[in-house]
Design goal:
By secondary structure, the chain is mainly beta. It has one helix at 102-108; strands at 10-23, 29-43, 58-64, 69-72, 78-87, 93-101, 116-131, 139-154. It has a single domain (10-154), classed as OB fold (Dihydrolipoamide Acetyltransferase, E2P). Helices cover 4% and strands 56% of the residues. The termini are far apart.
């Protein structure tokens, strides 16, 4: 296998977005998300990327596996958090956190566990502050990774939102 430095180059990767439950030494579990890469294209400069139209685009076909959580942000934006189970062969599933905004957030807040959905979105990260307890001001900053939904359809519906 030949090793080649990609420093300073632009890369395009394709693959499957997957999840894994990791148990920490203290017994707590958290969901790790990663890309199982199936293809990599290397570009010498940004000009070569102009032909790529699907930068940071993901498609999911799965099932709602937890009740949706609708809330308003401190700035008044309406959002709904979803956890989508995407089935793989051999009985395995990946659990992908997703977030819907505005009108779509209102619509999906009424979905039920088990509803099949298809969606397009983009992978995003955000920083948040996690308090150690409800009564404490102490806590730590963490990073959350999720799919920001651009278009979504409940499979039994003919409606498409987003």
């Amino acid at each position: 296998m030949m090793k080649k430095s990609l420093e300073g180059k632009w890369v395009e990767v394709a693959g499957q977005f997957r999840s894994h439950n990791k148990e920490e030494s203290d017994g707590r579990k958290h969901l790790e998300l990663f890309l199982f890469v199936t293809a990599i294209n290397i570009y010498e400069n940004e000009d070569e990327l102009e032909e790529i139209t699907n930068a940071n685009l993901i498609y999911l076909d799965g099932y709602l596996c937890k009740p949706p959580v609708f809330r308003k942000t401190p700035l008044g934006r309406e959002i709904t958090d979803l956890l989508i189970a995407v089935n793989r062969p051999y009985g395995k599933s990946d659990y992908i956190p997703c977030i819907a905004w505005g009108r779509v957030a209102q619509w999906v807040s009424e979905f039920e566990v088990g509803n099949r959905v298809k969606l397009y979105g983009r992978v995003q990260s955000r920083e948040y502050f996690k308090r150690y307890s409800k009564d404490s001001e102490a806590g730590e900053y963490r990073d959350a990774y999720e799919i920001s939904i651009m278009r979504m359809q409940r499979v039994e519906d003919l409606r498409l939102y987003g």
